[in-house]
Amino acid sequence: MSSDTPRRRFEDIDWDANGGFTLDRQTMGLLLTLGGLTVAFVIDYFQEGPLFAPNPVLREGWDLTQLDWLFMLSLTLFAFYVVVPLVRHRRMTAYYWQEFRKNRAAVLSLAYLLVIFTLGLVGPLLVTRPQVALLQSYQPPVGFAVDSAVPLQCVGDVGDGRCHGSWQFPLGTTGSGKDILALVVLGMRVSMRIGLITSFLIVGIGATVGTVAAYVGGLVDEVLMRYVDIQQVFPSFLLYLLLIYLFGGSLLMFILVFGLFSWGGTARLVRSASLQRSQEAYVDVARCAGADTKHVILRHILPNISGTVITNLTLLIPGLILFEAGLAFLALGDPTIPSWGQTIAAGRSDLRTAWWVSTIPGVFLFLTILAFNFVGDAFRNALDPRSEVD
């Protein structure tokens, strides 16, 4: 090699092609979408009445609440950080899908969850909020019949002294005459919001803390992990009970309390995975090339622990849904928002005469939790083949 050939040092290499402060198309799209949501939020805040007035499609209009805005923010983050990467990396997506579809139960579960998600997103806009109607109490579901003396007034056909179900109330009614179909659909919205918003808060904070603690190490790691220890000593459930006593129960309070104070386990899981990735050769190469901490974390560590994060997400969501249902069953939730746990509790004293009141929402709750477990196992096997047991 000629001695006249100029030699370039690592610190002279512009290994980051962007060079300075630049934004890629994904980040630009996210910022523009967040800007649009901010403008809509300001308009809704200063406008009197609902942002979407009643019309032939929206029977009761749509008065956006703080929870609705949080949900739209979560959908935006889900679209840009989950859907967009899957579309951009089609080859890897196709490979993961081939691995995922090997589990038929998981494929059926995913289809079921997509139906639940769609109904929870669109259904509440088309279903009238159920009202108390004592004359329509204890109507049986379609295909079933009860003693005509059980309901105060039979809406369906009466034959052989028995009241038969009517398509006016396909899933029957509660003891107060509320339509169970409407309650189930509204419960889907509650479960979807609980699962998506709370889990995004937990994963977002936990992944950030765990990754920074693992990569930076030293005093930063010690301080962050000791805070996690302190946080986990004081259960979020006790804080939630205290706030219920002071301010009353609400769905927004549940999301904020468990989203902001339940990420310790996720942080430890992500920290463990990040410690393994930070010892890989590609991270050493990036360090030697002059990459700063932010670049290494965003471009090398986080993308390579995404499998761990996604798997943890699929396990967090069913736990949150089940926990909220349990609190609603114990009357520790928001009494103004129908949920599956609240409907199950409404029929617990009528299991012998009106079994459908508790059973039908209980079946939906059971199938949703089971579906998330199947999907979580399949995602774990698809994203990390080492987890498969021969």
Automatic annotation (TrEMBL):
**Predominant subcellular localization, coarse grouping:** membrane
Q: Does the keyword GTP-binding apply?
A: no
The portions of this protein that span the membrane are: 28-46, 66-84, 105-127, 167-187, 194-217, 237-261, 309-333, 353-376
Key words, A-Z: Cell membrane, Membrane, Transmembrane, Transmembrane helix, Transport
Supply one GO CC term from the record.
plasma membrane
What single Pfam family name could you report for this chain, choosing any that match?
OppC_N
Residue intervals of the ABC transmembrane type-1 domain: 188-376
Q: Which family does it belong to?
A: Belongs to the binding-protein-dependent transport system permease family.
Protein name according to UniProt = ABC transporter permease
